[in-house]
Amino acid sequence: MDTPTASLLARSSTRSPAWDPRWDALFGLPRLSEAERQALALLLRSRAVAVGESVFRRGQASLQLVAVLEGAVGLGVATQGQAFHLERNIHGPAWLDISSAWAGGMFVQDAQALQTATVLELPLDGLRQLLGRCPDLCERMMCALAHAVQSLTGTTHDLMAKDAQKRLATWLLSRRSEASGGDVALKERKRELAAQLAITPETLSRLLRSLMSAGLIEVKGYSIKLLNLGALQSLAHD
Amino acid sequence: MDTPTASLLARSSTRSPAWDPRWDALFGLPRLSEAERQALALLLRSRAVAVGESVFRRGQASLQLVAVLEGAVGLGVATQGQAFHLERNIHGPAWLDISSAWAGGMFVQDAQALQTATVLELPLDGLRQLLGRCPDLCERMMCALAHAVQSLTGTTHDLMAKDAQKRLATWLLSRRSEASGGDVALKERKRELAAQLAITPETLSRLLRSLMSAGLIEVKGYSIKLLNLGALQSLAHD
DNA sequence: CGAACCCTTGATACGCTTCAACAAGAGTGG
DNA sequence: CCACTCTTGTTGAAGCGTATCAAGGGTTCG
């Protein structure tokens, strides 16, 4: 069911290709030129991934950039046995791994589909040639990598300096600003959110309850209403 | 006292410029071509920074890439007051910030000299034009950014999945492999190492003692001898 | 010599995890 | 329809890991 839109993005349809806003999530604004879009479309391959299936494994050779077009993929490491320690949720459309192919050519994490997902792969050797011809594209990739660095820097800072409550407040506020509205709809299981915050599901449950009884939020299943933004911000702010 | 070598790197001396190995730390191997080196030398500016002095501040406009040539600079955030929460030590030669200029143009961290340092700045507008002409340099920058992503990914993983003892063991082993030898010489104060491991100096002291009484290491002031690599590796390994 | 650091050591407190039990849906098959 | 199981989230009690606070020792330096 995802394939029609996926293939729309993958191959440039012959006439009047409706602009797919998912390009923007990957390459930023302003929009790619039509020439750039078509050149990329010639390179990339997309594939569907079923729930629980592996997208790539740690140690595997990484010869392409990987993005999630639709669905959700979890990044983490598979510890001994089959347990999978989830560390990060990537919700399409977004880059899943732009760094491994450039640096060393080996994945350092495992990726596993949390929902049925459409994954896009962009071979590095083709991309490299394309970048040589398109300085504009080159700069976009640079920016994408830089944003990844900034995002990870923020994550590291939060882990080092904030306790679980602060991290939760930070996360709630960052999700609110994405879809501007009074409340946040969870797109993931609570245990996945907990993993992303580096806490246990039990602690997350307790934190949500404590924030709720403090009157800062209102939790109803997978929908959280933020009642007191100011208080949340002062909580989140170091 | 650092200035002669710094200026050697900054301006291309007219004849037989001895290759400065510090370029390799920034741009990787294989070596830059002479043309690339000279083009970069025309762009960059270097400056000396005294101990405790700020290199850049959070929120400031970031229009250039920043590297540490010599000395050490700490990355972190200045909390209210004058306290400085250290998060990362950058020991020259190494990049200090390659992402801020590309992404948003604003520093997200503070940087403060921990030792007398020589700092190198590479304005982005000039670099951008240079990258348009040199695909090779462009790829090097891409790799540098990608390595930053990988390094931060590793840090994040360690913070999420390992306890303090595991992080310390990981750090000891990673430092050993840099300068191949039986023992590790600390280039920083122990409190700075503690900050980098996201623990307090007290906990670091206790951990070192416990590893020492377990016979895994031998601590003598600022020099740590690794006595049992296998045991350390099994500790560090998730 | 005292002052300022840095590191260490001990006692205590707190945050979070772990383990175990339980409740509430969702899917399944009789 | 019911009983059954599987999954997910919740709640409580106990325990571990690390922070915090306070005190003391070793250097270096004026």
Q: Widest sheet of chain A: strand order?
A: 1-8-3-6
Total domains of chain A, how many?
2
Tell me the structural class of chain A: alpha+beta
CATH hierarchy, class of the largest domain in chain A: Mainly Beta
Number of DSSP strand runs of chain A = 11
Largest sheet of chain A, described in full?
4 strands, antiparallel
The rounded Rg of chain A comes to: 19 Å
Q: Into which percent range does the helicity of residues of chain A fall?
A: 40-55%
Q: Which geometry of chain A do the CA atoms define?
A: globular
Largest interface, counted by CB within 8 Å of the partner chain's CB? A-B, 39 and 39 residues
Your description of this structure?
2 copies of one chain form a homodimer. Chain A is α+β, with helices and mostly antiparallel strands and 238 residues long. Chain A has 2 domains: 3-142, Jelly Rolls (Sandwich), CATH 2.60.120.10; 161-236, Orthogonal Bundle (Arc Repressor Mutant, subunit A). Helix content of chain A is 44%, strand content 24%. In chain A, helix 6 (164-178) crosses helix 9. Chain A binds chain B through residues 77, 79, 85, 87, 98-104, 108-109, 128, 131-132, 135, 138-139, 141-143, 145-150, 152-157, 159-161, 198, 238, and chain B through 77, 79, 85, 87, 98-104, 108-109, 128, 131-132, 135, 138-139, 141-143, 145-150, 152-157, 159-161, 198, 238. Chain B binds a DNA duplex (30 and 30 nucleotides) through helix 8.
